[in-house]
Amino acid sequence: MTVRKTGILKSVTAFLLALFLLLPQTVIVEAVTTEHNSDSGYDLILDDDADFLTAENEDSLVEIMTKISDYCNVALVTTTSHSFYSTEDFAADYFDSTFGAHASGTIFVIDRDLNEIYIYSDGEAHKTITNSHAYTITDNTYVYATESYGRDYYTCSYETMEQILALMEGLPATRGMKVLRPGLHLGTMKKNRFEPSHALALALSADEVVHTIDLSAEDPRVQAYLNGQTFSAEGDKGWYLITVDGYSIGWGKLAGGVMKNHYPKGLRIQY
Predict the structure, then answer these.
(1) What's the rounded Cα separation, in Å, for the pair 106 and 104?
(2) Which one of 66, 115, 143, 184 is at 20 to 30 Å from 258 when CA atoms are compared?
(3) The domain that contains 76 carries what CATH number?
């Protein structure tokens, strides 16, 4: 006897299909955040295709990127695979297809396919974020994406965006900048006595020192002091902070009714 199973199979198939449709579905959506700045007319794109960032990371990055979008279009893209010969080519193609060729904007790419980070800019934005500035920024931030820093792609991205924003706001690039002193020079010890520095005088106010003498801007002693001359004064012996209308200008040392001049020789004005 032949048993036909066609009807049974159809019923089972229909049941399984209905069950599948009722089950919660997992939809894979590419992690792209797009926002439009209605005030400036520019857009921001955060495309974490490589899934390097947490939701909190993305919120933080969108916040600073929104500030950049006041000045130009801005994008941040992560990738682990692409067909381009270089990260620059990938960045340029993504930029053109997203914002349009020669639009004013900048894009930062973290490329794990070629192990490189890259900033590409075009249009008016390129006048501010020049190639030289872009290299300076990536030189400053690439270390966060290295293994020694635990491949901290968020910090790498945030620091990059922060420095791009600084450029757009008119702050200078940092390449080649020399730091004279990494802090405040307090003074020097001379023959077991402390001599305060000019930098310390400028950092202090009258209410932060023991002795001070305040001169008005019209007082002829101001001109004498800036010229390196001494002037007569009364008070206890010791160091005095010299101020003009409340503003610190340097040190003097009172002894025997004479205020000895400690204004730096290189700053003295010849009247």
Answers:
(1) 7
(2) 184
(3) 3.10.310.50
